[in-house]
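Prompt: For my understanding, could you write out one protein's sequence and backbone structure tokens?
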Amino acid sequence: MLSSMRNMFRVPDLRNKILFTLFVLVLYRFGSHVPVPGVDFEAVKQLEEESSSGGVLGFLSLFSGGGLTRMAIFGLGIMPYITSSIIMQVLGVVIPKIEEWQQQGAAGQRKITQWTRYMTVVLAVLQSTGLAFLFHNGGGGLFGTNTDIDLIPDFTAPRVLLVVLSLTAGTALLMWMAELITQRGIGNGMSLLIFASVVSRIPVEGASIKAEQGVLVLAGVLAVAVAAMVAIIFIDQGQRRIPVQFAKRVVGRRQYGGNNTYIPLKVNQSGVIPIIFASSVLYLPVLLSNVVPWDGVRTFIDDHLVNQPGDPIYLTFYGSLIIFFAYFYTAISFDPAKQAETIRQQGGFIPGIRPGPQTERYLSRILNRITLAGAAFICGIALIPTVVFVLFDVSQFNGLGGTSLLIAVGVALETMKQIDSQLMMRNYESFLS
């Protein structure tokens, strides 16, 4: 990895991609500090100073790089796009037309992407409208703030429309920037934007912990973070290799096949996707609590989900969502039936397992076992540091928590793998030696 980092700027094409990616990330961070027009800038500053991290809203602020508490043009972050992606993937299971698109390759993927964009804009309009009413009352206490803060003192229809339009346009622009990174830059654009948001919070939160609780507590937090990083890297590289043998075929005077290979099944097959999906789903009850007329529902959500990272109900709900989405995404990304059929058509077989249904059942059994281990690991990484920090009364920990570290390390490893593959494609053997 260090060798790749030294040599990736020597290849002109790769260097241009990296510089383009960095340029877009800088623009994103700039937009995360620009408040939308029509808000009280002094109230925004006061809200940012009084806001505290933790719970569902802490994760939303984390994914937007603090843009949510600043009421910035990129305040919604990439979350509407993630939510619409989840909805499209779920609908692919129940709507035959979307399932048909998923099986059409690049042409079908373009249609799915187009509808995902439309749904992103609709969700952004709904969320920005809710936030406009919410921040009219200083966040309604969602950030643990003084509810007397009014970010939109001139609460008229034109002013609210301006705020909603600005936030929606920011989300659409952010979606376009993410796709630009994926197409013309290096790495996955959506993941890199979240990575930039997560990493940007670490220095601020580290300084806050040092100022409030001293160097000793900061050293303990960093020790937990380093241990989590080592575990994440170790598990992320782990895989179960299923051996596959191919029978020999004679065509004319030539012999084909007869070689051995393997199917690599990663322990953490879904990567950081379950964390992002679970955080996105957790936002829905928080948003609905400001719409439903029942005070009991709002009180329950405020007491157990909002600003309550150590609450048992929050931890149980969040952990269950992580495990569910780990299995869900693994089932979408790897189909044992399709893999077994591909092996059979190519004249291959797993030693000791008959081709066809037995191979499918064998792959499903292995996949379920390693997915359970991977899901339990990412659930533990997301929750255990949170519990430890809450026990030691560390309030500013989202940037140094397990969730953010899992995202940061996972995205960094995937990006470096893409850089390695780019170098290998250009046959720079001296770089990779």
Notes: Confidence is low (pLDDT under 50) at residues 428-433. The beta strands are 239-246, 248-251, 254-257, 260-266, 348-349. The longest helix spans residues 189-237.
